[in-house]
Amino acid sequence: xxxxxxxxxxxxxxxxxxxxxxxxxxxxxxxxxxxxxxxxxxxxxxxxxxxxxxxxxxxxxxxxxxxxxxxxxxxxxxxxxxxxxxxxxxxxxxxxxxxxxxxxxxxxxxxxxxxxxxxxxxxxxxxxxxxxxxxxxxxxxxxxxxxxxxxxxxx
Length: 155
Ligand code: CA2
Fold this sequence. Notes:
By secondary structure, the chain is of the alpha/beta class. The protein has helices spanning about 25-30, 35-45, 60-70, 90-100, 120-125, 135-150; strands at about 10-15, 50-55, 75-80, 100-105, 130.
């Protein structure tokens, strides 16, 4: 059977990102996860893509979503792995394993924060990483992903 990719992208948010806008606004801003998902839907639509947004506090569930992306022939992945970015070889391996173009996003500038946030296992598996743009980073990630997969802006 032909392995045709769909026009769906997965936007995956990891642990504690459900708290966006609820606490620590000085670090993460005032926008909520619902705002992020709305932004992603609109940004994806500009390229004729559909953003399927998921959030999980479970490493295992996030790995399941990445595997599901391959089974469903998803065109690309935008992932904010939260703190698992800094710890999870398993997420790294899942992204490498599915061979789907993946962009890493962080809301905050992880390099101006604690040194334990300076390393990302996900970054080694992603074709690009963005941080420090606040939730605008998701729009930039989708735009870059669209270019990578050859999805053009629609009029
Ligand atoms: O800057 C990012 O997007 C992070 O991925 C956010 C993670 C953090 O562990 C990463 O180092 C960088 C944290 C998720 C959000 O956690 C919150 C906790 C309390 C209130 C609001 C958000």
